[in-house]
Amino acid sequence: MSDQEPVIVAFVCNWCTFTAADLAGTSRLKYPPNVRLIRMMCSGMVDPKYVLKAFFEGADGVLIGGCHPGDCHYINGNYKARRRVALIKEVLALYGLEEDRIWLRWIGASEGNIFAETIKEMTEKIKSLGPTELKKELVA
Amino acid sequence: MTDCVRLPVDQGNMNAAFKDFFARLLEKDVVQALFLPMRQPDGVMAMHTLVRDPERLDGLDPLAPVTPTSAARLLSSLTFKKPGYRIGAFLRPCDFRAYVELVKLKQADLDQVLVITTDCRGRMETRDYLGLVAESGDAAALDFLRRAAAGDDTLALVQACRVCEHPAHDGADISLRLFGGNPEEGILFCAQTDKGRDALGETGLEEAQEPAGRTRELSSLLEARTAERDAMFEEYEARASSFSSLRDTLKTCINCYNCRAACPVCYCRECVFLTDTFRHDPEQYFRWAGKRGRVKLPTDTAFFHITRMFHMSTLCVGCGQCSAACPNDLPVMELFRTAARRTQARFGYEPGRSPDEPLPLSVFEDKEFEDLTAE
Questions:
Q1: Among candidates B21, B111, B108, B112, which has minimal Cα distance to B71?
Q2: Hey, are the CB atoms on A97 and B296 less than 8 Å from each other?
């Protein structure tokens, strides 16, 4: 199928980014439907395996959304997430997965508009990158 | 004032001299146990052996050019709970570096261990070592050292050793500074810590100077190894630059997880790949095969290797036990060192350099990696 819409999997923290997504919804803000939200309690519980699995199962982009540094509900989960995302990007880049397909963003609970903006931006970016090489031959 | 002492070797019998030295350490209570490579009574294989009786050092062969499994992992099984004994342990630089990482992971102890390392020419795979012993018998270690020093290309050195940039370690308590010297005449033991100095002081050996040629030999060896290492990185960056080329490199992998078991720094007490998380419901396989048309079994092959890279590439010391353990001769060491080079650089981390350097994923700063969030 050509011109397939990109799939973005978003791991968002319950307290900040997920709440922002909810706010975007209640405010009737428009954003592209390419994102699939997965609610985590904290960005710090995003295991690199989940990001890898998302790509292996056909995601074209992965967003990790957490609280702003200093505002994490669990104090320091987002700091751990930041180092983990650096690690994930480095390893996956080795195998040709562009670093730009993995986004780490701090989106606070009141920032519904920023959430919508981020999804819009990311969808455009991923569209320009096209489908991942992985998608052509999905493996378990 | 020198920190080095010389152990004289009589009539080229290096191992007899080592026996005297190590027996003395036990007899003078410098240590209460030794952990050294020793040929077993019923065979020729040199295995790390825990010795408490100085009369039982028969078969001692510390410089036997073989490490059948990671000595770091073996030593950690003696020290993961603070040992009640002081242990004198021989570890090659790679094993020492892995051991330092295990200490950071709280799976090993350094306080109760007197570490003796060596200038290292490398090692052979077990089957090649057995071939060497068949040729040279008891003189296998000396024969290896002689041939390695002369640059003998026919020596079957493990690939990990050919690309190793750590033929020595100045953080261990004592180091056998072999380069530039002749082990058939004498062995130079140099203290590198206070603990090492105290230990060598008890041996009553004569003070000595480091041979003049050591620095030169060390740097020329480093130069050769670094060149081979860079060639390896070039090859593997190209060879596994996409997921499909990675899968091609892993084409004979059968998910046996031997590399995981052999790796000294693969630290999980329970590996997720051995849990129900990867014991997929049979229906899942049919779903995958249904969605994609077909699915190779076993699944999660590239997934396993990439996950292992996430977990331990920052700790990888390039010891090569993974490649040695692979039943299908996969270039595991090459794959992991290539990934490790990138992840270690990203965090500015060098495993095994110092026990005071925290593991990069166990710490964080208030402001760092700001380019990551494009803010």
A1: B108
A2: no
Spatial CA neighbour of B67 closest among B117, B137, B139: B117
What ipTM was assigned to the predicted interfaces of this complex? 0.95
Residue A2 lies in a domain: no
Instruction: Report pTM.
Output: 0.96
pLDDT tens digits, residue range A61-100?
A: 999 999 999 999 999 999 999 999 999 999 999 999 999 9
Chain A hits for B366, Cβ within 8 Å = 69-70, 79
The CATH number that applies at residue A117 is 3.40.50
How many domains are there within chain A? 1
Beta pairing partners, A25: none
Question: How many of the other CB atoms lie within 10 Å of CB of B71?
Answer: 26
User: For residue range A108-123, what is the model confidence (pLDDT) as tens digits?
Assistant: 999 999 999 999 999 9
Strands B206-208 and B4-8: antiparallel
Q: Considering the domain boundaries, does residue A1 fall inside one? A: no
**Distance (Å, rounded) from C-alpha B334 to C-alpha B325?**
14
Residues of A in contact with B295 (CB under 8 A): 139-140
Task: Name the residue among B240, B361, B375 with its Cβ closest to that of A95.
Answer: B240
Smallest Cβ–Cβ distance between A94 and the set B247, B307, B339 belongs to: B339
Determine the distance in angstroms separating the CA of B21 from the nearest CA of chain A, rounded to an integer.
46
What residue numbers bound the domain in which A30 lies?
Answer: 8-136
Contact B302 A139 (CB under 8 A): yes
CB contact (8 A) between residue A94 and residue B237? yes
